[in-house]
Amino acid sequence: MRHRQADGSMDLAQLRTFLAVYRAGSITAAAGQVGLSQPTVTTQLQALERHLGRPLFERLPRGVAPTAAAHDLAARVAAPLDALESVTGTGTLDSPPVTEPPVLLGGPTELLGTLVLPALAPLIAEGIRLTVTTGLADDLLVDLRVGKLDLALSTVRPRGRTVLADALADEEFILVGAPDLAARADPNRLRANDFTATPLVAYAPDLPIIRRYWRHVFDTRLEAEPALVVPDLRAVLAAVVAGAGISVLPTYLCTRELSSGAIEPLHTPADAPINTIFLARRVGGPPRPHVDRLRTHLRETARHWQSCAD
Fold this sequence. Notes:
Elements: H1 12-24, H2 27-34, H3 38-52, E1 57-59, E2 64-66, H4 68-88, E3 103-107, H5 109-125, E4 130-134, H6 137-145, E5 151-154, E6 163-177, H7 179-184, H8 187-191, E7 201-202, H9 208-218, E8 228-229, H10 233-241, E9 247-250, H11 255-260, E10 264-265, E11 274-282, H12 289-301, H13 305-309
Parallel strand pairs: 3-4, 3-5, 7-8
Antiparallel strand pairs: 1-2, 5-11, 6-9, 6-10, 6-11
Helix pairs in contact: 1-2, 1-3, 1-4, 2-3, 5-12
């Protein structure tokens, strides 16, 4: 197949090369995946940019960053190209067979570090390669839809026909503090938004996790300013253990600290708030045995996550 149409329009080879660069974030890495030289990849990208009349990538000291035009093009061509490759059984036209690339997995930092990556260690030992991306659920699901991820862990239920999701487990939330603060905590005063003796440690300035707990458990609107904001739940836990204040955390994250007495529950509601953790994947695309193996392993492992948190 020709790599460029006589009239200068796009062809499949250009689009597949573009998608490889978009997903890899690097011309060098993409060239290896599609079996072309770096100059050829650059030439194909330039031809595609001339046809579109817009730049697709910004060149960085290491790799490239997609522009808005690249995000739009990837969203339109990723699923059809993956579907075509699943029919032809090849990675790209005119490309030699390559070893299976790393599985691209996205998810929340705390969940990945505490439960997911330890669970996947045996697969790494078996030879499966893994590249992990952390971020917010909405951003990760966008990356999944355009092919920048193979799998995404999300507490937001994916919508649309291009993504399928399995419910893995429920994460339960608990209101905790160091023992001295727990001794001073009065649920009635907390319900009344009185935090004079119990400052709040939060993940974000708008206290999304804590506000949800107050609404679900105390049936009231939280009106408070956090004493400490840090965008990492592991750091929130460390601050709570040190006595900086109280917070709401997923039970899986603080099982050890609860068992040791480093922190204590401030309240034990009959119906604690939960989030369902979904494992999302794209529909279609070429066969990926390592992606399927990792997905199956996570589904099996997640059965034990709740028992570990109890």
